[in-house]
Write a structure and sequence with these properties.
Layout (H helix, E strand, L loop, with lengths): L1 E5 L11 H13 L4 E7 L14 E3 L10 H8 L1 E7 L2 E7 L15 H19 L3 E5 L5 H6 L8 E5 L7 E2 L20 E2 L2 E3 H8 L2 E4 L2 H7 L9 H6 L4 E3 L26 H15 L10 E8 L5 H10 L6 E8 L1 H13 L4 E5 L3 H10 L2 E4 L9 H7 L3 E5 L2 H6 L12 E3 L4 H15 L2 H12 L6 H19 L1
Parallel strand pairs: 1-2, 1-6, 2-5, 6-7, 7-11, 11-12, 13-14, 13-16, 14-15, 16-17, 17-18
Antiparallel strand pairs: 3-4, 4-5, 8-10, 9-10
Helix pairs in contact: 8-11, 9-14
Amino acid sequence: MKILHTAAEFFPYIKVGGLSDMLASLSKYQSKNNEVHIALPLLESIRPELKFLKTEIPCIADELRYNTDACKVLEKSKFRKVKHGKINLYFFDSPLFSRYDKIYGNTDELYSFAIFSYACYYLGIHLDVDVVHSHDWHTSLVSVINNTRYPGKPTVFTIHNLAFQGDHPFWMTSFLRTDPFHIPLESIANYEKVNYMKGALQYTQEITTVSRGYRDEILHEPQGLFLSWILNQRIDSFTGIMNGVDEKEWNPKSDKKIYKNYTLKTVEKGKRENKEALYKEFGLPVDPERPLIGMVSRLTHQKGFETFLNAFLARWNLPFFYFILGTGDKELEGRFFHESHFSNHRLFFYKGFDETLARKIEAASDFFLMPSLFEPCGLNQMYSQVYGTVPIVSRVGGLKDSVREDPDLNFSTGLVFEPGQDHSLAFALDRASTLYYNKDGLHKVRSNIMNLDWSWKNSEMEYHRIYEKAISKKLI
């Protein structure tokens, strides 16, 4: 099967959130038995690291080069090809994205991503793919264009985070009425705004999201964020498919980015050595016998850090040391800096994101905390399990699908608490402390989680089935 993915992120070139890792690992697995193409924006910052082939593909047909601003931009743009293993990457080389220092949060992104989406539509026609799989609102118009213009390809659309829908006032999107789009704005409107994601949900053949738990949550308000009505209309075409993990990329036995490799047989010694090396690198005078809780995340309201800070202060007596890596909300950054300076070495905060440091934290930590208020899938809880790091997660979305707390430790794969509930997280920290000092119990849970299979095998088969459904529907 010939598959074209369209997205704003792809590891290692453009990474902001879990979409980047998900698409990189899914496409890698798909490329074993399929011809996989991926369309991405080209930011100027990543241009030097790309080895372009001679292949260049236009972004609009000659006969459609009308005298509109959108057509002129598309005429000046092109796709440039890069090989990434067996995967064909096509970077959208355009004056729109060459101005950007970052992929998200730019003032005219509704226009830039619309232009990119049309180019992706044309790329799918040019490559004559069997199915186009688009991810989140940034390329949601790909599904709209493929199903409102002729010719069009079968489409699948994946919701990675419903909180970001690409909704804008009508006056900002009037360009979509003209060449080369000709999109009826009323058909992609929701609550008196043009909503890019709603357009995809309306027109695509199949809809997926990244866990069964999140699928069930967003079928109801308020989690549905005013789109639950259309998701319920399309419920027979709406599937939750759990993300997977690239077993070669995430493996404590072979990971070259951590201090010391280890396996299940050497996990206790390996974690201690990684913990000591982490403390030494950052000059932290912390007792390695104390349990370490790691946190790696964007600092946003979604991630539930207010809940954590309240529980942290409520359980000051517990022996944990916290190592936190993240950046985002300035108020949260300030609070973490404050605790980092005045908590008597109970908490250390590193502002920013560093892929290598993130892996070092995973390998060194005894527990990994994710206090999210909602979480479509989450990958860090699965990375943690692979590295023998016991996840402590809120009972939401993909977290509750992948982590189970059981009084019988033979069946336990982590600790679970109620989202947004300070006291529930505080009690979970109590249970984590008890587990840490129960060495036999801790080893049992580590054995459980390191033997879990989070490979893409089953999920990739589900995506293949969804692609076949989309193709059959398009032919009707």
